[in-house]
Amino acid sequence: MKLASSGDSAVATKSLLDQWDREHSWHPFTQMEEYAAWPQLHVERGEGCWLYDTDGNRYLDGNASIWAAAHGHGDPEIDQALKDQIDRVAHSTYLGLSHPNGALLGKKLVESAPRDLKRAVFSDNGSNAIEIALKLSFQYWQLVGKPEKRLIVGMADGYHGDTFGAMSAGNSQAFHGRFDPWLFESRVFPAPSCDTVNGAVSSEDASESLAVLEKILSSERDRIAAVIFEPLAQGPAGMRMQPMGFAKEVEHLCRQYGVHLILDEVFVGCGRMGKIFACEWEGVNPDFVCLAKGLSAGYLPLAATLTTERIYEAFLGDFESGRAFFHGHTFTGNPLAATVALKSLEKLERLIESGRLERTIAYFGERFEAVFGDHSNVGSLRQRGMAAAIDLTPGEGREPWSLNDRVGLQVCMAARDCGLLLRPLLDSILIVPPLTIGADEIDFLFDNLKKPLEATMKKIGN
Ligand SMILES: Cc1ncc(COP(=O)(O)O)c(C=O)c1O
User: Is the CB of 229 under 6 A from ligand 1?
Assistant: First the structure.
């Protein structure tokens, strides 16, 4: 088939696109040797929860384009806001200048945020939002005369992004272990355990996690700057849930031992857990919250690090004091991205206030349990908010799978033939659709995941 390229006259065949991609692209988080052997898929357009490839095939976007497309694709209100902003200005720096939608977005975010968060520092991706929180905490302790407080405590299997600070604060050995020699010193506490489907908790245990955290804090409080973790669920670790009330306990410990609390809401924020801020569920009042992904609804790169007036004020002084925070990016607070985020937040508020998001979450959980609850190749199911995970397992009496079997990947590749796009995490399937997904689309999602799952199991003899 012929398709138009970004220029208005150039055309390229699908096979030419395949060739350019194979010869010149290097995709993120992808073993390229493996990728080169896959059939390629070039997404050409999107509408609602659906993406269309260059052959006109349509796919349900089961991972919301890596957890970002909160309102699906081509939302008419967001598109219009973006067009209006393009007619005004596409980019103008936030370094020493402001613009109307940047100022308004900061105000809106702070108004919906937990009590003490009063300032928004913008950046352009989740890793940078984390990097900024870490640096603000580090510099704050220097500015208040406690420079020895610079250790970060993170949760086991925490993933906060791929920049060096984010990797140091995280504990994702599988992704980042090889960079250990370049990472700064940090401490780790275990994650609590909690199995939940459709809001119902079947087992939970936070005691060891909290006990280890308290031990670390009590023995090194004078050296610790901050504790960082994702509240409610560790998304990139495979939707590992935490018992309700856990984040509040961590907040108490942070207050007791005088360290900052940084919440990574890059994944769980912006409606993914049913509220704008996931920490609202427990009334947690952190020192920093990091947002990205759904903040700009998957349209444009935008992130925000929210913090308190107390931290902000420590950075004030005359220029010579050197107290200013010297960190920023070319596209910090980009006007187009800020415009999209404003419209997206407005729509998210409507989705929550109308009760629609709550109803969608309830149906998503019910159908998930109904379709996969008793499946013999499902080791465990986890779901909270609009996020779910299935851990696949060999049938009873079968040999364990090896890493190279790539069972999760095989299921996701087969799902494409059923009109469904998903991304696995090893042998787990992560399901993170747009928040606006309809009931019939939820039915489609689970039915068309079950088919390739069963076909793959049959193919590999399970
Ligand atoms: C919880 C969490 N934190 C941070 C990040 C990093 O965000 P980004 O990929 O925008 O740098 C991610 C990305 O998946 C994430 O899921």
Answer: no
Site to substitute for ligand 1 among 266, 270, 331, most atoms within 8 A of C-beta: 266
* C-alpha of residue 113 to centroid of ligand 1, in Å: 20
Ligand 1 mean position, distance from CA 219 (Å): 30
Q: Residue 277 has which token pair? A: 């801020």
b or e along 258-283 (b: 16 or more beta carbons within 10 Å of the residue's beta carbon)?
A: ebbbbbbbbbbbbbbbbbbbbbbbbe
| Index of the ligand 1 atom closest to the CA of residue 268 | 1
Q: Give the distance (Å) from ligand 1 centre to CA of residue 162.
A: 8
**What's the rounded Cα separation, in Å, for the pair 456 and 414?**
7
Residue 57 C-alpha to ligand 1 middle, in angstroms?
A: 29
Per-residue pLDDT of the chain (462 residues; tens, 9 = 90+): 444 455 433 468 999 999 999 999 999 999 999 999 999 999 999 999 999 999 999 999 999 999 999 999 999 999 999 999 999 999 999 999 999 999 999 999 999 999 999 999 999 999 999 999 999 999 999 999 999 999 999 999 999 999 999 999 999 888 999 999 999 999 999 999 887 766 677 788 999 999 999 999 999 999 999 999 999 999 999 999 999 999 999 999 999 999 999 999 999 999 999 999 999 999 999 999 999 999 999 999 999 999 999 999 999 999 999 999 999 999 999 999 999 999 999 999 999 999 999 999 999 999 999 999 999 999 999 999 999 999 999 988 899 999 999 999 999 999 999 999 999 999 999 999 999 999 999 999 999 999 999 999 999 988
Would you state the torsion angle of the CA atoms of residues 425, 431, 435, 437, taken in this order, to the nearest 10 degrees? 140
Q: Residue 2, SS3?
A: strand
Q: Is 267 in the pocket of ligand 1 (CB under 6 A)?
A: yes
